UniProtKB/TrEMBL annotation:
<feature type="transmembrane region" description="Helical">
    <location>
        <begin position="68"/>
        <end position="88"/>
    </location>
</feature>
<dbReference type="Pfam" id="PF01345">
    <property type="entry name" value="DUF11"/>
</dbReference>
<protein>
    <recommendedName>
        <fullName>DUF11 domain-containing protein</fullName>
    </recommendedName>
</protein>
<dbReference type="InterPro" id="IPR001434">
    <property type="entry name" value="OmcB-like_DUF11"/>
</dbReference>
<keyword id="KW-0472">Membrane</keyword>
<keyword id="KW-0812">Transmembrane</keyword>
<feature type="domain" description="DUF11">
    <location>
        <begin position="216"/>
        <end position="294"/>
    </location>
</feature>
<keyword id="KW-1133">Transmembrane helix</keyword>
Length: 642
């Protein structure tokens, strides 16, 4: 087919441009005369033109419309089918919304009375609910309605199968306790399964009630703020609201950290926080007054908890449940006279020391008042047997050995006569910890000492009355356990037979037995392990004795690890030490002539002291061929030769 002339091509381009711009109006197309001998065949058209405009019924737009219509028809037919099935079969769809849970009871109940709950369950689903059960979760302190000593946390009730539109009713009883006005919540959980399914479905319902009255009214008179270190009193008054006698009452007071119990007007248990009060008649009262003091930082919040109830028994000091429960808070204010005790520059409540360690103590005190404090006295009490009493030396103080107290006052130094406002002073002391052998003789387990510093003085009040000011702080000193590790290299003895010579020969294989032993004088050590490495010229023989010891070798890192785990206090002292043996070999090289090659690198024992809550470690140097623990055969034992 002949191509259009350049003139005709220009006209076509101009026409195409107007079509693209939308400005084609009143245009007459000039027809060109085609040569008569040529005919145009559609098969010769450019494929691009066919792709752009398409043959009849095969354009891309038509194909998209046709596909969309087909998908829409299929979806519509499927929807009609599903809807028909649901309608014809009655719609067996399961929903929690079709299960009605009704939980009813009193909105208020007296503490110690029975709470009656009624539960109604209606199944509005089109199918049965199988393996149905009800779980009832009660608040803390709830007791069985039939046995008040039995704690009631959760009850389970099996209901079996609940049919379509079936109604199930159940009732629950429990003894509830709590403080007056306290809101408590019972949670009901309904569980079920569907026919042919192992899945468990559930629905929950909560019921809230209020404790309207308690059999005992408890009133606590506790200051809202107090100076640190200042002695103070607080009272707990109990009044019976019960028409009957309340038997075997027990008062339990939980103190905050930093509180020091001093005394009470009614004798308590030895720990100072439990009182067995006996019986309380209807309308009767009992009052307990407690004396003590607090340590802490400025604005620190301290919480006291008070619980009264019948004793669970006469020995364990616990309430079976609570008739009344109260929480009271107190804010710490700066003490009138502040004090601090630092040991080896450590000011925490606990410090950890080593056997035979020398301790430098520094005591500071300051006046936080706007008036003078006179006649100051410092008293440091030492409780414990870890300190070498002969080593105690107090700067400007006096150590009284009969009661293990160090005293400072105006008789020992003029610094204690008067402390002016905002004035700060200090003094010091030194002592040493007993040696390991002495500690073993006095305390075989968890050695520690408690140092208690009491600072007292006198100040004039606004009414010109003399008042004693007092601050007390304490510090615990714990001695860190020192687990010990022994390492040996053997040739002629031990659990294995060795080859070669005590004095290794070049190119001749020699084997040795390595023995590790571990002892622990006091304080349990956990996570203990021993680690070492083998040089590149030493080979591991995979022989261990005893075979049940957890000794492993990593061929990639050449590291040996003995996982000891727990080291009981006294191992190797009160009982045999932990011990493991293993065998290694090496073939000396010419480059090692005249030396004693290393067989095992430096060996390290690590762990954590459970009592002191502090990591511990002990190490031994490398074992060489000259480290043989054998009778010496000349001065050159273990030296490589040809």
């Amino acid at each position: 087919m002949a191509l259009p002339s350049s003139k005709e091509t220009s006209s076509l381009n101009e026409l195409q441009k107007k079509l693209d711009q939308g400005t084609l109006t009143n245009v007459r197309l000039k027809r060109s005369n085609l040569p008569p001998e040529e005919s145009v065949d559609a098969s010769d058209w450019s494929k691009d033109i066919i792709d752009d405009y398409g043959e009849p019924g095969q354009s891309s737009s038509w194909r998209k419309i046709k596909n969309f219509l087909v998908i829409a028809v299929v979806f519509f037919v499927a929807s009609l089918g599903i809807a028909s099935i649901v309608i014809l079969r009655g719609g067996n769809l399961i929903s929690n919304a079709n299960i009605n849970l009704d939980l009813r009871g009193p909105v208020s109940v007296k503490s110690g009375d029975v709470l009656h709950l009624q539960v109604g369950i209606i199944n509005h689903n089109k199918v049965s609910l199988e393996a149905a059960r009800v779980l009832v979760e009660y608040p803390d302190g709830t007791r069985s309605a039939t046995d008040a000593t039995q704690n009631f946390v959760r009850e389970n009730y099996n209901l079996g199968t609940i049919k379509k539109d079936e109604v199930v009713n159940r009732s629950f009883d429990a003894l509830v306790f709590g403080g007056q006005g306290v809101q408590q919540k019972v949670k009901l959980i309904f569980e079920y399964r569907l026919v042919g399914s192992n899945n468990i479905f559930s629905k929950e319902k909560d019921f809230v009630y209020t404790i309207s009255d308690a059999p005992i009214t408890m009133a606590v008179d506790l200051p809202t703020e107090m100076n640190a270190g200042r002695e103070f009193d607080f009272t707990i008054e109990l009044v019976s609201n019960s028409p009957t006698i309340l038997s075997d009452l027990l008062l339990d007071v939980s103190y905050p950290p930093g509180f020091q119990f001093k005394s009470a007007d009614i004798p308590s248990a030895p720990d100072g926080h439990v009182w067995h009060l006996g019986d309380l008649a209807s309308g009767a009262k009992k009052k307990v007054t407690i004396t003590g003091f607090l340590s802490g930082q400025e604005n620190e919040l301290k919480s006291f908890r008070f619980v009264v109830g019948p004793a669970q028994n006469q020995t364990d000091g616990q309430t079976a449940f609570a008739y009344a429960d109260a929480l009271k808070n107190l804010v710490i204010r700066n003490p009138f006279v502040s004090a601090n005790l630092a040991l080896n520059n450590q000011s925490g409540d606990e410090i950890v020391v080593l056997p035979a360690e020398n301790i430098n103590g520094q005591i500071t005190w300051a006046n936080n008042l706007t008036t003078d404090i006179k006649n100051l006295q410092l008293e440091l009490k030492i409780d414990g047997s870890i300190i070498n009493r002969r080593s105690i030396d107090a700067v400007s103080g006096f150590y009284r050995s009969q009661d293990d107290k160090i005293l400072w006052n105006k008789e020992t130094s003029a610094d204690f006569e008067t402390l002016t406002p905002n004035d700060k002073k200090q003094t010091g002391l030194t002592f040493s910890i007993l040696s390991l052998s002495s500690l073993r003789d006095t305390l075989a387990r968890n050695p520690q000492a408690k140092l208690t510093l009491v600072v007292t003085g006198e100040r004039q009040t606004a009414s010109n009355q003399s008042e004693t000011v007092r601050t007390e702080i304490s510090k615990i000193v714990k001695v860190l356990s020192v687990p010990q590790l022994a390492t040996q290299l053997l040739f002629n003895s031990g659990p294995f037979s060795n080859v070669g010579s005590v004095n290794p020969k070049v190119d001749q294989q020699t084997s040795y037995t390595v023995v590790w032993s571990v002892a622990n004088p006091y304080n349990e050590v956990k996570e203990a392990q021993v680690v070492a490495t083998l040089p590149v010229y030493v080979d591991w023989q995979s022989t261990i004795s005893p075979a049940d010891e957890k000794l492993s070798y990593n061929s990639s890192t050449r590291q040996l690890t003995w996982a000891l785990g727990l080291l009981p206090a006294g191992s190797g002292f009160d009982s045999a030490p932990r011990e493991v043996s293993f065998q290694v070999t090496f073939t000396p090289s010419l480059s090692q002539i005249g030396i004693a090659p290393t067989m095992v690198s430096a060996t390290v024992l690590t762990g954590k002291d459970s009592f002191a809550n502090t990591p511990v470690s002990f190490s031994r140097g490398a074992l060489t061929t000259s480290s043989l623990n054998e009778p010496k055969e000349g001065a050159s034992v273990g030296i490589v030769s040809e």
